[in-house]
Amino acid sequence: MTQRLDKLQAALEAVLGDAIRQLVRERGEITITVAAERYLATARTLRDDPRLRFEQLIDLCGVDYSDYRNRPWEGLRFCVVSHLLSITHNWRVRLKVFAPDDDLPEVASLTEVWNSANWFEREAFDLYGILFDGHVDLRRILTDYGFIGHPMRKDFPVSGQVEMIYDAEARRVVYQPVSIEPRENTPRVVREDNYGGLH
Fold first, then answer.
1. pLDDT digits (tens, 9 = 90+) for 103-137
2. Structural domains for the chain
3. Tens digits of per-residue pLDDT, 47-62?
4. String of b and e for 31-52 (b: at least 16 CB within 10 Å)?
């Protein structure tokens, strides 16, 4: 495994050069981070260069780094993480890019490089509010058409803001403020004297 990763790392560094802002080798995987302005060009190179040949985008998701690992995060808040697969070379790489503006997070769309990015990018837009420049159909994919906000953002209220109910008199679905009383559940831990064979 180490020789394969050495070979992949050498190929990535030779082909991408200074486009790589950070390369992390952890748990048998390589993660590269690139600048937003070089994201699309890097993706094309990862796909087209014969030394790399990442033919498939197998996953793409958004990440909200605010309060990362329950600590304040120093740096840009929103990140897009793509997982790529090279069938030719039988290796994988993780590609990360941070949106340069926390208030209006936007990066280039990868749909022209890998068409499988289409629904993944729509999901990242819907859940995190990340915009993808060049995406031809960037609209919500999981939440309702009238939904307000982006529910996977760490500052999104836990109980939501509105609920949808069926009004029998109006004979239609209506929205109303959330009627659930906020509460805090504290689990009660019961320990038996001989729990799990411990004395």
1. 999 999 999 999 999 999 999 999 999 999 999 99
2. 2-145 (3.30.460.80)
3. 999 999 999 999 999 9
4. bbbbebebbbebbebbbeeeeb
